């Protein structure tokens, strides 16, 4: 334990009473946890993308989620195993998964589970997930739309996705490329900062209905923003978006958003309860993410929301 505590930790996690890892206590995890606390995850299959030391999977497992899978491009296996043991929870950890191989990695994992199912019995494995968490990822990747589409491909109809990222609070459809050498906020792993309306558009383009949002300031011209959206079987387009249905005719779309993975859409919607008052679009039904951000106060970030204590369930 002493050796592990001397290493780099992204999250501040209590490993024994009063013993907490030297995590960064970044406040953005608070808005992810706030939205996650409003999802009834009991019995739901959950996927956490970019898990680091698995703070989110621990919370999901403690709240009764089933079949929790945590993936990351890096391998923090030793630390994750220690966290799992300290908090007495069970979940699958799959390291070395880059965004471009996310769907294939999950397909290969299910293929292995299917062989075990056929020989040893037990429940038939599922590829789809009821809840997908994509927190702190989009501004690190070179193609945010590809990553959103890959995550959406693994979300079953009626399921919920939480997306949290660094964002520009502007009323425009833009992304800022940060590799010019002048736009870094966190460091050279920054890539794209999109605007809230563009994220809203991407979600609806990928057949997701935005439901709710939280945010906190993060410096001049930048905020941390989290939203939750439900997977639907159509594109919730605005009246002005007359070409949204034609956009998927692009040859790239079938490779981006895999819509052929889940033939049975009969599962009920995953329950979600809003606490604030999101601004909804009349005639569309979706939450207007930018209007909701403008109409709401930043989340009050408390110490409990930036650390994972042994007794925490949110």
Please characterize this protein's 3D structure.
The protein has 314 residues and is α/β, with parallel strands linked by helices. It has one domain (27-235, 269-307): Rossmann fold (3-Layer(aba) Sandwich), CATH 3.40.50. 26% of the residues lie in helices and 22% in strands. The protein has nine helices and twelve strands. It has helices spanning 2-5, 28-36, 55-62, 77-87, 102-120, 144-153, 196-205, 253-256, 289-295; strands at 12-16, 19-20, 45-49, 66-71, 92-94, 129-135, 155-168, 175-177, 192-195, 208-217, 223-231, 307-308. The mean pLDDT is 92.
Q: What is the number of domains?
A: 1
From the alpha carbons, calculate the radius of gyration and give it in angstroms: 19 Å
Shape: globular
Straight-line N-to-C gap = 25 Å
- In round numbers, the mean pLDDT is 92
CATH architecture: 3-Layer(aba) Sandwich
Give the class from helix and strand content and strand pairing: alpha/beta
Our count of helices gives: 9
Give me the CATH superfamily. Answer: Vaccinia Virus protein VP39
| CATH fold title | Rossmann fold
Order of helices and strands: HEEHEHEHEHEHEEEHEEHHE
Q: What's the multimeric state?
A: single chain
Give unreliable regions as ranges.
Answer: none
| Strand proportion | 15-25%
Task: Let me know the number of strands.
Answer: 12
> What is the helix fraction of residues, given as a range?
25-40%
For the record, the CATH class is Alpha Beta
Biggest sheet details: 9 strands, mixed
């Amino acid at each position: 334990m002493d050796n592990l505590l001397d290493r780099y930790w992204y999250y501040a996690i209590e490993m024994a009473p009063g013993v907490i890892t030297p995590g960064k206590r970044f406040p953005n995890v608070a808005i992810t946890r706030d939205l996650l606390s409003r999802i009834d995850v009991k019995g739901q299959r959950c996927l956490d993308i970019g898990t680091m030391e698995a703070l989110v999977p621990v919370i999901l497992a403690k709240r009764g989620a089933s079949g929790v899978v945590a993936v990351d491009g890096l391998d923090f296996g030793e630390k994750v195993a220690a966290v799992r043991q300290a908090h007495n929870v069970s979940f699958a950890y799959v390291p070395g998964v880059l965004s471009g191989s996310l769907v294939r990695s999950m397909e290969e994992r299910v293929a292995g589970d299917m062989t075990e199912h056929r020989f040893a019995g037990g429940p038939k494995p599922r590829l789809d997930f009821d809840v997908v968490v994509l927190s702190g990822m989009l501004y690190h990747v070179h193609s945010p739309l590809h990553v959103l589409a890959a995550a959406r491909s693994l979300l079953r109809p009626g399921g919920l996705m939480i997306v949290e990222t660094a964002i520009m609070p502007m009323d425009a459809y833009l992304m800022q490329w940060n590799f010019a050498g002048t736009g870094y906020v966190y460091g050279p792993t920054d890539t794209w900062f999109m605007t809230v309306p563009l994220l809203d558009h991407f979600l609806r383009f990928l057949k997701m209905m935005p439901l709710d949002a939280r945010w906190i300031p993060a410096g001049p011209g930048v905020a941390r923003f989290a939203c939750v959206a439900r997977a639907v079987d159509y594109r919730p387009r605005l009246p002005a978006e007359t070409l949204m249905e034609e956009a998927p005719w692009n040859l790239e779309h079938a490779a981006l958003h895999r819509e052929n993975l889940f033939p049975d859409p009969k599962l009920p919607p995953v329950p979600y309860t809003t606490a604030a008052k999101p601004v909804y679009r009349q005639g569309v039904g979706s939450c207007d993410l930018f209007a909701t951000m403008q109409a709401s106060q930043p989340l009050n970030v408390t110490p409990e929301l930036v650390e994972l204590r042994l007794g925490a369930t949110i």
